[in-house]
Design brief:
The complex is a heterodimer of chains A (105) and B (162).
Chain A: H1 5-25, H2 29-53, H3 62-92
Chain B: H1 2-23, H2 27-47, H3 51-75, H4 89-109, H5 124-132, H6 138-159
The chains are: A mainly alpha (105), B mainly alpha (162).
Chain lengths: 105, 162
C-alpha cells in the first residue's frame, strides 16, 4: 500500500496529541511554548497533505499558502511569548507556569 | 518506492523526537530534539512536493524560532529545576488519547478521494504567483507583514528595562 492522505493525517494527529499533552502537563513556560510549536507543525503537515492529495492529479496551492501564514504567525507568537516569559522571569524569578498565579482568583 | 521509505523513516523520527521533547528531564536537550522534529517535518514537506515550504521550515523554525527558544532557556536556566510535569498528568493523558483516537478513526474511515500520480513540477513558482497576485493572497500577505512588525515592536517594548 503506497503512502496516501491517511498516513499524513495520522502522523499529524499523533504529533498534535503529543504537543497537546505537553502543553497541558508541562510547568516550564518555555517547554509549553515548544509544545505549541509542535502542535502548529502538526497542523501544517495536515494542511500541506490536503493541498497535495485532496484533488486528484493537481496540487491545490492554497493549502501551502495557509501553511506559510501559520509559520509567520508562529514566528510572531514565539517572539512575543518569549518576551513575556523573560519579562515575567525578570520580576518573579521563575518560569514555572504553576507559580505565575498573580491573576488567579 | 523511495518516497514511501522516506516517509516511514521521517514519520517515526518525528514522533520519537516529539516524545523526547515531552519526556526528557533536561530542557536544553528537549530543545535539541525539538530541532530534530522540525528537520523531520521539513523532510515530510519534501515528500509532499512542497520544497519551498521545506526551505522556509528550516530557515524560520530552525533558524529563528528554535534559536529564540534556546536563548530563552539559557537566560532562565539557573532558576529552572528540570522539566517537571504538573498535576494534570492523568486527565491530560486521557484527553490526548481520546482525541487521538477520534482523529485517527475519522481520518481513516472517511472516504478520501485518492490523489493521482505526483507531478514532478515544483510548486514554488505557482506559490509566488498565488501569494502576490491581485485576486490571490496579497492583502493577507501585507497584513502578515504589519503583524510581524507589530510583534517585533511589542517584543522589544515588553523586554525593555524600565
Amino acid at each position: 500500500m503506497s503512502i496516501g492522505l491517511e498516513h499524513y493525517l495520522v502522523l499529524s494527529a499523533i504529533l498534535f496529541c503529543i504537543g497537546m499533552y505537553g502543553a497541558l502537563v508541562k510547568r516550564n513556560a518555555v517547554v509549553i511554548l515548544m509544545c505549541i510549536e509542535i502542535m502548529l507543525n502538526a497542523a501544517n503537515i495536515a494542511l500541506v497533505a490536503f493541498s497535495r492529495f485532496l484533488v486528484p492529479g493537481t496540487v491545490v496551492l492554497e493549502g501551502q499558502v495557509f501553511a506559510i501564514f501559520v509559520i509567520v504567525v508562529a514566528a510572531a507568537e514565539a517572539a512575543v511569548g518569549l518576551a513575556i516569559i523573560m519579562a515575567v522571569y525578570r520580576t518573579r524569578k521563575t518560569v514555572d507556569a504553576s507559580e505565575i498565579d498573580l491573576m488567579k482568583g | 518506492m523511495a518516497v514511501d521509505v522516506a516517509f516511514w523513516i521521517l514519520a517515526v523520527l518525528s514522533v520519537v523526537a516529539a516524545l523526547a521533547v515531552i519526556m526528557l528531564r533536561d530542557v536544553f536537550r528537549a530543545a535539541l530534539f525539538l530541532i530534530l522534529c522540525f528537520f523531520t517535518v521539513a523532510g515530510i514537506y519534501v515528500t509532499l512536493n512542497a520544497g519551498f515550504l521545506a526551505a522556509v521550515q528550516v530557515l524560520i523554525y530552525i533558524g529563528a524560532i528554535a534559536i529564540l527558544l534556546i536563548f530563552a532557556i539559557m537566560f532562565t536556566r539557573d532558576a529552572q529545576a528540570g522539566n517537571p510535569s504538573g498535576r494534570l498528568r492523568l486527565p491530560a493523558g486521557v484527553a490526548a488519547v481520546v482525541l487521538l483516537g477520534v482523529m485517527i478513526s475519522s481520518a481513516v474511515t472517511y472516504g478520501w478521494l485518492e490523489g493521482g500520480e505526483m507531478s514532478e513540477m515544483t510548486s514554488t513558482g505557482g506559490l509566488g504567483q498565488l501569494l502576490f497576485s491581485e485576486n490571490g493572497f496579497v492583502l493577507p500577505l501585507e497584513i502578515a507583514g504589519v503583524m510581524l512588525l507589530a510583534a517585533a515592536l511589542g517584543a522589544i517594548a515588553i523586554m525593555r528595562e524600565k
